[in-house]
Amino acid sequence: MPQPKRPRHLGVIMDGNGRWARARGLPRLAGHREGAARARDIVRWAADAGIAEISLYAFSTENWARPEEEVRGLMALLAQLLPREIPEMQKEGVRLVALGDVDRLPARARRALQRAIAATRENRRITLALCLNYGGQQEIVEGVKRALAWALAAEDPQARIAELTPERFRRFLWRAELAPVDLIIRTGGELRISNFHLWDAAYAELYFTDTLWPDFTRAEFEQALADFAARERRFGRISEQVRR
Ligand code: FPP
Question: Which CATH number fits domain 9-135+180-229: 3.20.20.80, 3.40.630.10, 3.40.1180.10, 3.30.930.10?
């Protein structure tokens, strides 16, 4: 198993916007605004570091349960920021894709997203997967439904079901076109995955930091990459096997 020095696909749980805002006596949405600025930064840092794919957990399937004003504010922010970011994405070679059940987003946010995706589809330097209305369990359940539909459409459904392996099942996930996540960074001090990239979390490396997302710096990003490069990824094997 080759030892990757850089993650091919980096996932980020951008937690701590609310606490950052509260500490300054600002509304929570001000924290999300500053968080969005860091999101822009990390895509640039990742592209500079030669990372091919980055996915940002911007809105989870559980985030709908937040106060209505905050949900509305986040969706408005998305609709406002995405069109503005297109020139920068073109300049940096960012191809935007969405990961999640985006059909459920409010129309304005959905349209802004579709436009930005269409405008950047030819870019090749880095793929940015914006996770919106994303949930790892939901993704797996949707995958099971697709796999069952595929099996039931065959002459011998039982044989198809018997053929399913984790590798084959992966193509039924929303993320089929993305490489498995190698490294997940979570800011904000919580030590959990929160329904992010559940399938790939099987072997992803995890980097947790207490830093609140709006305070995340390039130096800490580099620290997370250095940490990743120093880890031995064994994928269930023993050390002597992977070092060969
Ligand atoms: C978690 O912080 C952050 C989010 C739920 C949203 C992340 C959104 C952005 C970085 C802005 C860009 C995305 C959109 C959709 C415009 P938190 O609110 O849970 O912080 P807390 O734990 O301190 O309360």
Answer: 3.40.1180.10
